Amino acid sequence: MPDNTRRARDEDFWLTFADRYAVQPGPINLENGYFGRMSRTVVEEYQRNIELINRSNSVQVRQRFEPQDSLDIRAQLAEMLGVRAHSIALTRNASDGLQALIRNYNRLQPGDQVLICDLEYDTVKGAMRWLAGHRGVEVIEIDHQHPATFDSLLASYRDIFVRYPRLKLMALTHVTHRTGLVMPVQAIAALAKEHGVDVILDGAHALGQLEFDLESLGVAFAGYNLHKWIGAPLTLGFIYIAPQRLADIDPDMGEMHFPLNDIRGRTPYSTPNIPALMTLPLVLEEHQAMGGSAAKGARLNYLRDRWVSAVRELPGIEVMTPDDPRLYCGITSMRFTNHADQQVMAERLLSEYNLFTVVRSGAASGPCIRITPGLTTTAAEIDLLIKALTELS
Fold first, then answer.
1. Domains of the chain by range and CATH?
2. What value does the mean pLDDT take over residues 367-381?
3. Which of 8, 20, 118, 379 could be a cystine partner for 302, CB 3.0 to 4.6 Å?
């Protein structure tokens, strides 16, 4: 058994790990997909940085942070990702970055087509639809077959690329926020490249719980969060642009603070959350010290498998995410098939079992309850979830 798989089942280790985090008494949080917790040491570092910047004000920022520290921080992040520093730019979150990539993509002509699917994040859908009015393109929208398989996902895109030869750009989500389905990004991107379609990848939920080589995915443009599974303060994310493709993204609204060949001009220029950025080196150090995405992902998958294997065959329960290990991660959704209103059932999970979950809608397969364990979630809490789902089914 690999070390990460063995450790994923070691409750004593994860209880010790959970002690590094402050958790407020109250409902058991199974909605850890919104944003992650900072460790106690990261919170302390963040507070120190807030106090430092508040004391020193623009002197520290102008003399040290802007000319040197910000570049060092970006270089450390790039090293963890295995990419060159000049291929990433820090943003406030994935949504900001993805909107910037979409609106500044300059290879579209009137009459071209762009592609979205039902599982895309609403902000991404909105940005792609915005292109219709401002670039004169046609938006192609598809619904994915449910339940999805690796082959069905590839087949759906292969068919779309053939049916719509004017496609030039597509959105693709690595981990879908509605059901937790993990898209086979590398395979889809290879198909897209064969047909001359560029991919803008939404990696908001992927970084920190999935192992991947960013350059090997085959996408030229991507946006990520750092405050979900990496453990950074809120307001931190980044975009990636393959260096050879930088010219295909215009500077944001004529941005002139950076040279034309600097990726940082491809995002809105504003005063960032400097204390949060200064915290990032410690965040990356802690993430890597515990084994990075491999260790975190193994634990989250173990917790997910624990409840899914116990309830998948129950009458009245439908698990929305497949069990193909290529297509799932810690985030998984389900629904009560005997109840039309999933929000009512989510409220019952909270009121009767003290389990906090969230309802997601917008997928063609219908509303579902998203269940996302976190790094402080225990096996005992998952067992309570199993009990609740069994009784409510």
1. 3-30+292-392 (3.90.1150.10), 48-286 (3.40.640.10)
2. 97
3. 8
